[in-house]
């Protein structure tokens, strides 16, 4: 089985780049489950955009914590220094 890559970065990229799309991410291992649903997050935010930096930071923290607990990971799910807080540039 090949590794999936950094799933946390992938989920964050999808949410940040597609704020109008509803995502439901769920992962189960040995009877334990972690899920993230942007519909639930968006309803709690009211008028705050889901792709604002504060909201994305909170989502990333929750995602990393949930996946770390599920897979008993310590450091491999941490965001890389290369991608942390790098502003996107449009051409």
What can be said about the biggest beta sheet? 2 strands, antiparallel
> What is the N-to-C order of secondary-structure elements (H for helix, E for strand)?
HEEHH
Low-confidence stretches: 75-91
> Cα-atom Rg, whole angstroms?
14 Å
- Shape descriptor: globular
Structural class call reads alpha+beta
The strand order across the widest sheet is 1-2
Return the domain count: 1
Which percent range fits the helix content? Answer: 40-55%
Strand percentage, roughly? 5-15%
Mean pLDDT rating: 82
Counting DSSP E segments of at least 2 residues, the number of strands comes to: 2
The span between the termini is: 38 Å
Q: What topology emerges from the helices and strands here?
A:
Elements: H1 7-17, E1 24-29, E2 32-37, H2 38-45, H3 53-71
Antiparallel strand pairs: 1-2
């Amino acid at each position: 089985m090949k590794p999936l890559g950094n799933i946390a970065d992938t989920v964050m990229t999808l949410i940040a780049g597609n704020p109008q799309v509803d995502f439901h991410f769920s992962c189960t291992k040995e009877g334990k489950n972690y899920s993230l649903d942007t519909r639930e997050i968006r309803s709690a935010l009211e008028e705050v955009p889901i792709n604002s930096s504060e909201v994305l930071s909170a989502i990333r923290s929750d995602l990393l914590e949930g996946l770390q607990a599920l897979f008993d990971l310590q450091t491999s799910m941490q965001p890389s220094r290369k991608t942390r807080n790098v502003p996107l540039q449009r051409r």
